[in-house]
Inverse folding.
């Protein structure tokens, strides 16, 4: 059975531009001619580095849009998050704290531009409650629920919840939350999708939880050479900011794959933007990982901008139809 095509929107993309070969300059034609050679050389160099340093291989699964057997996956979803100390700003998730203001701002602005409040929000895979508790400090949220299987993460989340606010943190599987049908205006999954092996099942639960017209908000990691260099080689092997094995490059999700998945799950209006650190933030994180900089001096944040070339992560939304 054929599935509906889901339009993908990227800010800054001009579909009316003429990209025909006759419009190319001689310089761009020369670049295109040598591009395969350059990419081949870069691939060989990267393959040598991977083998020499004992890094995990750049291994893609045949189809990221279908369930993947756990036996084929090389990832540890527990060791990086199994204590409250690891959720602190100077712990394994220092990068998540650094990116949190930008992603929460994106989520809040998107919600308030598309929906009328007050808002009922569930944060699936909430971990230490970084997003949930940040939203609790903002106006307009009548119900906030965080769901996770990490007891340490939930304990940290409860300890950091603002006084007099509404967050509720539940120990449950994201695949089967036990929450009521159509009981939320917004479902958020932040830095979660790239850790899951059954994306169709996950999106089925997201769809069930949303009321008609509700929003699905996410950020996740693209599967590219660039993301391998930053998220695995840099974060796990160079700086040790997160433990080795915290990611499986094959589980990273290309934007086109997520668009296909959302279309099959009957979502509409898929939209995404690039979400990544400026070079200054990367250097400060590396200095932090090497013990040269304290968490108090981790500044710079993440940038949300139109995709224009290689990206590490992307952030976006999709909507459940009204009918």
């Amino acid at each position: 059975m054929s599935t509906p095509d889901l339009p993908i929107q990227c800010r800054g993309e001009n579909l009316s531009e003429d990209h025909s070969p006759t419009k190319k300059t001689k310089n761009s034609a020369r670049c295109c001619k040598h591009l395969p050679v350059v990419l081949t050389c870069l691939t060989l160099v990267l393959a040598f580095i991977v083998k020499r340093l004992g890094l995990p291989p750049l291994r893609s699964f045949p189809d990221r849009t279908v369930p993947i057997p756990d036996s084929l996956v090389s990832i540890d979803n527990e060791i990086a998050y199994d204590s409250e100390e690891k959720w602190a700003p100077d712990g394994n998730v220092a990068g998540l704290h650094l990116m949190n203001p930008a992603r929460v701002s994106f989520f809040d602005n998107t919600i308030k531009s598309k929906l009328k409040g007050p808002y009922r929000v569930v944060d699936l895979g909430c971990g230490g409650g970084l997003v949930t508790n940040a939203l609790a400090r903002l106006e307009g949220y009548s119900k906030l629920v965080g769901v996770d299987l990490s007891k340490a993460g939930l304990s940290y989340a409860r300890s950091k919840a603002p006084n007099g606010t509404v967050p509720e943190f539940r120990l449950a599987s994201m695949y089967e939350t036990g929450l009521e049908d159509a009981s939320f205006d917004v479902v958020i999954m932040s830095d979660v999708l790239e850790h899951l092996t059954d994306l169709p099942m996950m999106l089925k639960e997201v769809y069930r939880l949303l009321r008609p017209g509700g929003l699905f908000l996410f950020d996740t990691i693209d599967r590219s050479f660039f993301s391998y260099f930053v998220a695995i080689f840099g974060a796990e092997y160079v700086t040790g900011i997160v433990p080795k094995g915290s990611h499986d490059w094959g589980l990273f999700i290309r934007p086109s794959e997520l668009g296909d998945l959302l279309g099959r799950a009957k979502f509409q209006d898929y939209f995404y933007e690039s979400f990544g650190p400026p070079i200054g933030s990367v250097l400060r994180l590396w200095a932090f990982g090497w013990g040269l900089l304290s968490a108090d001096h981790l500044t710079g944040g993440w940038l949300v901008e139109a995709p224009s070339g290689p990206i590490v992560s992307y952030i976006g939304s999709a909507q459940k139809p009204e009918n």
Summary: Residues 78 and 90 are 18 Å apart (CA to CA). The longest helix spans residues 26-53. The longest strand covers residues 210-221.
